[in-house]
Structures are given as C-alpha cells and as structure tokens.
Amino acid sequence: MTSTRSVRPPRLAEALIPVVLMIAFLGMSVVNAPSLPELPVISPVLRFLGSLPVVGSLLDSGLTPHIPLIFGTVIASLMGIRLGLSWKEIERGMVDGIVVALPACLILMVIGMLIGTWIASGIVPTMIHFGLKLISPSVFLFTTCAICALVSLATGSSWSTAGTVGIALIGVGHGLNIPLPLVAGAIISGSYFGDKMSPISDTTVLAPSVAGTDVFTHVRHMVYTTGPSLVIALALYALIGLRYGADTMDTAGIEAITRALDEKFTVHWCLLIPPVLVIVMVAFKIPALPALLAGSVIGAGTAMLVQGMSLAAVMEVAQTGFATETGVKAVDTLLNRGGMISMLPTVALIVCALSFGGVMERTGMLGVIAAAILRVAKSTGSLIAATVCTCLGMNIIAPDQYLSIVVPGRMYREAYHKAGLHPKNLSRALEDSGTLTSPLVPWNSCGAYMWATLGVFPFHYAPFAFLNLINPLISILLGYLGWTITKVPPPVPHPAPAATPAEVTAESRS
After folding, report:
1. Per-residue pLDDT tens digits for 408-454
2. What does the alpha-carbon distance between residue 108 and residue 340 come to, in Å, rounded to a whole number?
3. Residue ranges of the domains in the chain?
4. What does the alpha-carbon distance between residue 270 and residue 264 come to, in Å, rounded to a whole number?
5. Burial label, 497 (beta-carbon count in 10 A; 0-12, 13-18, 19+)
6. Is 166:159 a contact under the CB 8 Å cutoff?
7. Tens digit of pLDDT for each residue in 278-333?
8. Is 497 left (phi over 0), alpha (psi -120 to 50) or beta?
9. pTM of the shown model
10. What secondary structure, in 3-state letters, does 465-478 show?
C-alpha cells in the first residue's frame, strides 16, 4: 500500500514568517550597536533590545550574515515540511538555488588571485602611485564615478570594473584621506551605470528578453531614468568633493605612501598595460572568468619578470594573498590583501544566502509574497512601484541579481500586457531596481562581491551609492507622472466584410 503526500500552497502569513525572522536575526546580528552614533528613538530601542536575555547579546556582536541566513533557511525548511514537502524536495530547492551562483563563486576566487598577483607585480601600487600624483582630492569622487562609468560601459561588467580600476581607486582614496564608504559608493555608482546601460552587459540582455522586447529598445528607454540619475550622482560627488580640497590634503602622508611604494616596488607606467588588456578583453566579449584569469596569469608573470619574485612566492600570493611590512601603516593596509582564500568567506555567504532563496522558491513562498504585492498594483504608477519593490525584495530574499530580474519579469509580464503597457516599461523597471539594488545587500551575490573586492561593508557605502539609490526613485516617479511611459496601441477592429448576395439569400432561407 503506497501513501501519497499532499502538498498545499502556503498562505501569505506562513510565507512571511521565515522572511521576518531571518531579517530580524540578520539585523540584530549585523548591526553592532556599540559602533553606532547616538540616534534619537533608534538608540533607546537598541539599548532595550540589547537588555533582553539570550538574543540581546547579538546586538553587540557585529557578526557576519552567515549564521542568520542559515537560521532563515532552517525556518523556511520547517515551513516547507509543514506544507507537505519532503526533505528531498527541500534539499533540491537548496541545490538549485546554489547552482545559479556557481559562476559568481568561480569569478570571486579568480578575483582573489588577481588582487594578490596584481599587488605583488606592482600593478596596483603603480595605479595608486600615479593616482595620488595626478588626481586632486576635490575632484576625486567625481572622477572615480566617471572613470568607472566609462570602463563599465565599455566592458559591460560592474564586477570587472570594480575588480580592476576599483581596487586602485580605493587605494588612491585611502591615500587622499577620503572616507572609504564615499569612495566605494562612487565606484559602485559608476560601475553599475555601465552594467545597466551597456548592450554587452548580461543583465542588459536578460531584462528585455524576460520582458519581451529587444536590447536596443530597452537601452534607449533606460536613458530617461538612468541618464538623470547619473547626472545627479555626479553633481553630488562634485559637491561633496569640495570638502576635500588642497587645504585638507595630507601632503606628508601622501609623500610617505608614494615613497614606501617606490622603495618596495618597481613603479613604471608600463605596469598599467595589464589592466588595459583585461578591460579590452572584456570589451571584446571574452567572458569575465577567462579574462580575469588571464589577468591573474599576466600579473603573476609580471611579478616574476619585473619585481623578481619566484614562481613559488607568486603561487603563494595567488592562494593566500600579498603580505608586507613597509613601516607605513596606510601602505600596509592597502597592500596586505587578496588571494583566493580571502574570498572563501564570501563564497560561503553566497551559498548560505541562495540556500535560503532556493527553499523559499521551491516551497512557493516567494510566489505567494510576490502575488500579494501584485494585487495592490491598480494603476501604472503602482504597477511600476510594485515591480521595483519586488525586485528589491528578491535581492534580499532570493539574493541573486539574475533572480531579481527573471522572477519579477515572469510575474509581471502579463500584468503589463493587460494594462496596455509596452514591454520596454517592464524591462526598464526590472533593471532600475533589480540590477541597481543588488550591490546594496551584503548577502546578495553582488553585495558580497563588492564587499570582498573593495573591503567596505555594503551598508556603509550604500548611503553614498547615489546612482543606485536615485534611479529606482526616478523610475517610480515617472511611472506615477506617466512621463516616458509607452502604451501599446489597442488593436484596430477590422469591419466585417460585406455579405455576398449568395450569403444573403442563404440567410433569408434559413
């Protein structure tokens, strides 16, 4: 006798339980309350929560998100069993969720190797050296955003941009005494402008294919939201940069950094060629993984040829990272990093996050939450706002940039069609939020990558990633105002053909 297991769809309240508990646990674990300034209302609440038995200690811990995400996965799995799913089905959901991010994990490990070999070869020190000499602090943030925008527009990759010029710009900003969250925010804004607008970007191709339009129609339509967002972001960076003029520059500190770099490395403009080669490879549509791996090999060869390192030393740097003691703390902070092993905590974070997202999707809880949002979207503005919010929610709950585009795209495609909206409106909304909010979430694959590459926690740089914050708001605003929203003209009814004499005769006889 065989027994069948009945599986029922989750109710909205059941779907929200794992999300609410996971976010609460994440918030309490990651916040690190003692490091926060005194804030009205918020600080007293945090002190009260910190006084609670057992869970109160989390507020002082400043933990990484790994364990809270596993906790959320456990709760989601238990809910799945309650709904009637077997453990094998839940496990399959975890595996399917993780598989999506395996290419990102491989790129992360290669980026760790690239950072280590590029520092050891003198490539990054050379970029920092010339950056400190040539870029004025007052225009540094503006220049950083503009450079990253141009490079990412050419390569179509925010990850490649941050992993090459972004690493050097973080070093230059550190040398110029500009707060690193500001520098990282400018790098993120510029990098994601190109990632969003370049026709060779994978997300720029993915969004219109999901929505049902073509790439160039999609790119042209995004100009109305992304163009003003970049202009506003650049203006804000220019204004903030005025606070860091020549009078605030630590000339002695910069001199100490450049002197230490000169003493430790052979610094020469020829060492700028490898980054250019990697950017050219990506621009010519060589996939990111082989292009970055080639960059690591070039860096390793340069370290042996130019800096005189042995093969064993270069391989050790690629695995464990570069380590040195120059006697200048700022230089040691800049250079003691990289290596494949340094990326393993980030890979683990992505695995934990996508395990949670995979269980949420397999159990149907993601779909229930999304459907509830869709029910409140009655007007064009509310439909676009719902799309933007759903993409943001997907980046938090099923933390992968591609899922935040594909799942809402499939969900809302029919709703846009019924509302008489051109598919390019949907594809634009998907990228305005799905692409741009992904690096702002620490446990998202994009946020984890930027955290590992730039060394700045996403919640610290998020307030200064102006493009990523402004663009979704402009998208919602234009939706409610109806500006640049393209309607699909209703089909023109064709008049019925006139009846022939034979048909009239037959009808009269019937």
Report:
1. 888 888 889 989 999 999 999 999 999 999 999 988 989 999 999 99
2. 8
3. 12-93, 102-201+210-344, 364-481
4. 17
5. exposed
6. no
7. 888 887 878 888 988 999 999 999 999 999 999 999 999 999 999 998 888 888 88
8. beta
9. 0.81
10. CHHHHHHHHHHHHH
